[in-house]
Amino acid sequence: MEKHCTNWTLLLVLCGLLPLASQAGRQMPKLSDKKLCADSECSHPILIARALQDYYPQDCRFIPIQQGQSVYVYAMLKDRGNLFWAGSVQGSYYGEQEARLGFFPSSVVEETHALIPAEVEVNTDKWDFYCY
After folding, report:
1. Name one GO biological process term (predicted).
2. Which of 32, 36, 34 is nearest to 118 (CA)?
């Protein structure tokens, strides 16, 4: 019976119906030690951007973005020349898709509305790079 269950589990993983345990519940490598935010909790969006192109994430720290989507930016990672921003996207017209939070390359978006200056430097911690 155990071998039969193992085969079903493998089949579900291969079909994408069951996530791999290796991607869930682990700390991922840090992308930066510091981030720039509007406040010490990074709870207020600093700008709104529009996606210039589709972006497909490389791991669970990142969010998928579709060309033309609005992106709310909450933090800019400080190291490595500000290559990555943290934010959220939502589908068109209130919830075609639920909001997702994560990182994305700053090069795939363009700023459309500045909201609050990102003047507060905040240390990143393990939860910034934790995959569920």
Report:
1. extracellular matrix organization
2. 36
Instruction: Give kind and range of the element (H or E) at residue 28.
Output: none
CA distance linking residue 85 with residue 104, whole number of Å:
6
Q: What is the CA radius of gyration of the chain?
A: 17
CATH of the domain at 53: 2.30.30.40
Tell me whether residue 35 is in a domain.
Answer: yes
Q: For residue range 66-121, what is the model confidence (pLDDT) as tens digits?
A: 999 999 999 999 976 678 999 998 765 445 556 678 999 999 999 999 999 999 99
Q: Tell me if residue 106 falls in helix, strand or coil.
A: helix
Q: How far is CA 26 from CA 42, 128, 130, in A?
A: 22, 12, 6
Give Cα 22 distance to the centre of its chain: 18
Helix (H) / strand (E) containing 63: none
Q: How far apart are CA 47 and CA 81, in angstroms?
A: 18
- The DSSP element (H or E) to which 13 belongs, if any, is helix 2-14
